[in-house]
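Team,

Forwarding the record for the chain on the shared tracking sheet. I've put the sequence and predicted structure together so nobody has to dig through attachments.
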Amino acid sequence: MLCEVRNISPDITLALWQTSEPSSELLSQLVQRDFYQPYYEHLKTEKRRREWTASKLLAERVCGADRRVVYDEYGKPLLQDGSFFISISHTADYVAFIASRSRKVGVDIEKIGDRALGLKERFMSVGELQNLDAENALCDVLMHWCAKETAFKMNDERAVVYDDYRVLKGDTDFENSFDFQTVWREKTYKMRYCKFADFVMVFAVE
């Protein structure tokens, strides 16, 4: 079910879908289902079908029923007609979608769990590890992961090299959310971090 649509600005929309429905029900709601049906049938698991189909529903709800999501040579999603910049992420039973007509966007969403703590040395720098918030280490680690994934999605790179990304946390401005920047080579992005009951999410606009 569509659980939230948030207008970040007049040109930027962020939406969330909780995939509680069977994938066949999601597929039946697609206006462009005839276009998507062959791709849907090649997906092997019900979980993947739910995530994939929900992302296409979000694209239709946010960008218009005549819009179609396709993928570039690196597997990154884009609209076939190029009318919006988009980004998609999924975790557990949630799918996140962000779109803008004029600016590159990125989003990453992750379910809260201990797995990232055991992997943090693989994607965090020594300085980032030293600056972890000890009282909220799990969410802080997930925030770093999501930030780097979001920055990666906003760049035309084939593979992510985590050492190229640096997270610079800013000041908290309201509960459970704060601004920070992720620096990738010559680029700096202003991002937003959000914590919900069972997941964290980062989104950014170029």
